[in-house]
Fold this sequence. Notes:
By secondary structure, chain A is an all-alpha fold. Chain A contains 16 helices and two strands. Chain B has helices at 7-36, 56-59, 65-98, 104-112, 119-132, 139-162, 168-175, 180-209, 212-217, 224-231, 238-267; strands spanning 40-41, 52-53.
Amino acid sequence: xxxxxxxxxxxxxxxxxxxxxxxxxxMVVSGVVLMLIGARWVTGPxxxxxxAIMLGAIVTLVITAITGGPEARRKIAPYGLLKPGVLWLxxxxxxxxxxxxxxxxxxLPSRFAVKAxxxxxxxxxxxxxxxxxxxxxxxxxxxxxxxxxxxxxxxPLAYVxxxxxxxxxxxxxxxxxxxxxxxxxxxxxxxSSLLADSGPxxxxxxxxxxxxxxxxxxxxxxxxxxxxxxxxxxxLTYNFLPxxxxxxxxxxxxxxxxxxxxxxxxxxxxxxxxxxxxFPLTIPGLFAGTLLTFIPAAGDFINQQYLGNPNTSMxxxxxxxxFLVQNxxxxxxxxxxxxxxxxTIGVLIYTKFFGTExxx
Amino acid sequence: MSAPxxxxxxxxxxxxxxxxxxxxxxxxxxxxxxxxxxxNRPNGNYNIQWQRFTFSxxxxxxxxxxxxxxxxxxxxxxxxxxxxATVLGxxxxxxxxxxxxxxxxxxxxxxxxxLTTPEIVLxxxxxxxxxxxxxxxxxxxxxxxHIMFQVSFVALTVxxxxxxxxxxxxxxxxxxxxxPLRTFWRVTFPLVxxxxxxAALLSFALSIDDFIITFFxxxxxxxxxxxxxxxxxxxxxPAVNVxxxxxxxxxxxxxxxxxxxxxRKKRV
Lengths: 360, 268
């Protein structure tokens, strides 16, 4: 039995010598080409030519893999494994972002036209800001408050499961995931019933005599909870809570309990020990949890649709309404694009300050 | 963990445990509501106020044709999209954790991007692509959309599960004379399988539950959540609660089986 070694590799094969470079180039080139064809940036004969380049890159890779020997194959292997998924994302994630941008700069020829024409119409962006500034503001504000609440509710829960769950840990963790197994929409409808004027929550608050004070604080609206900003924020908090708990738990799980004991010996008061030792170690989890909570919350429209009123509408509602109801796809695209850019910039700044290598 | 020695310490400990228990309860309030209201006999078209206890909703869970059809569509979509996404995503995860290669870090970042893009942007942008190509939105476009968001999810979940595996086992198998194909089936595949199954299960759930991305790409197709949302203008029948409870029970059963299977694997 001959075990192939590097020495057996045909040194003379020029393709095999550049295997890694070839693999990377072929993947990037075919990804970019597919994205451009998908977005109809290149069309007609140019698209055929581009497709030929893509095929050529793949064929070269296959030839290299066949003729190149084990070492070359090992170098190409990761690119081969990545390729199907990457191409899918190039065509159905990246290309749509280009068509979204194109659509946001288009004009509908008439009120009832289905397809908009691309003509560098920046007016959509002006409309996006002038008509929907409050919706943008509310989306960011509600999502931010909901994110803070998920930390306040989720962190202690994750902590107790991680450090005091003992043998019930996986059971408790399973319980956190169970809400995922009922529809997000039905859970939101459930909250609308629970928060209704005759529902149990308002009844309970009334029993405790809290409706008055809460109304004064502006959390309730004259003894009502449903159709208030508080209800919308509450819904967002609830729906995205598991996305905060799980990453925090993962980072807590890595903390050595002996370290906590040592910290308590050193700093004595548990609170101080916690903030000096445990908390800093969970920043990666908090970071991931914040992104996983804030981003979907900012773009959500279901919670506001079922728990809010027209005065609590968020940018998601505007986009959904313009796109699917008013059929003003260009305006909806402009708002969508602004939302994406806002969040991307926010994430970049946030990553700069709190970011870690361990994202996701 | 050191036992608290002071009364104050023990009190603080119980306070924290109580708080955590309340938080856990909070997660379950709507779930309990959904299950309880599957036993309610509503007055009128909306099953949102408690009236009387009844078993009658459960005698024929699939009696509501519209909802049952929509649920079937959802299951079909989830089955197809999860199969494709699990293969694509697992291959990516394998590449990222098994090999060191040029462009690996950029790849990691690229994979996170779809997860840090709001669903409404993913949904609306994909819809503009289909509009641009004059493709009628329906079953196929929804499957495409679901695969798109599942791929990243599967890749990252599987990668997290198989990080830190001892890949020299593969080398050992080959040194012992196994062919690469045999090495894959006998060594690599069993190693990654539990992680892959867990990821597939969760992304199946994500697919059935997805509302926002589906809403933009469904055209006239009705999935389970879309059907409920569409009908909510006129009614919210107990059949919704019955079907949701059924899904819940099935999911828990699968999850428990999966956990048992996973722990059995670990002992081997």
